[in-house]
Amino acid sequence: MKTAKAFYPIGTPGTPWGDAERAEWLSRQTRQRSYASEVLSAIEPLRARFDVEEYGRLEYGDESFPLLAIRSRDWNDDLPVVLVTGGVHGYETSAVHGALQFVDQHAADYAGRVNLLVAPCVSPWGYERIHRWNPHAIDPNRSFREDSPAEESAALMRLVAPVRDRVLMHIDLHETTDTDETEFRPALAARDGKRFTPGGIPDGFYLVDDSENPQPKFQQAVIAAVKKVTHIAPADANGEIIGSPVVARGVIEYPLKQLGLCASITNARYKTTTEVYPDSPRATPEQCNTAQAVAVCAAIDYALAHR
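The chain above was modelled as a monomer; its predicted structure follows.
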């Protein structure tokens, strides 16, 4: 468990940000990698085997980001739908590339068994800036609700709406990083005019179940598969992971819909959010991507076996 004391340089302690503070924050964000060359270029070869559609386009200043989804080519309305989302927080690299690895290496295994719908990079502006928020200092993963203030979230909800009631399983891929503690949580506290309370970063993989519809056996099936690839996060001294009680090995619960989280956007029986720890000395980028892909496969396998 790592902890860090942080001071955020924007805003006045105790006072929520206004337009000036948001503008100052935005002015500090720099493009650090390319969505086109790292993500769109990886999707392009998949067009030979899958249907790829543009489900929206983000226009931020002079920048334009197509939002792409990958579908089973043999879509059959008689089959259940499986939804895979990644990059809701753009900085979480293995969430994006793990989703693409799943499509490239494993999706064909499910042809004729499920309809796959994969949105591998929900927040491309955040991907390029290696940031959690969009340029309006809004967290897309707290914005999956009616009249969403985040266009990233609204676009994904529009994509999913026609199949929302037919989704059997939704897995939303994420990471928990050291910068959550050194940058993103302090920024959140500063933005909202709250005190930042240092916490800890769990060393290892864990899952977030839906406290309103928990599926413990489903979660444990995913944990069992992933532990063959990378280590599972232990509970801290309080029996918690990031402030939430550990309900089973490597599993915590959130009220997904109440918090506006991506995993709440369908009526799927089986829902989970993965959390990979890429900063661990015990994990490589390749392991992190593979852990995400393995989690997707295990989640689909369990859902199909327990329909």
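Residues 285-305 form the longest helix (21 residues).
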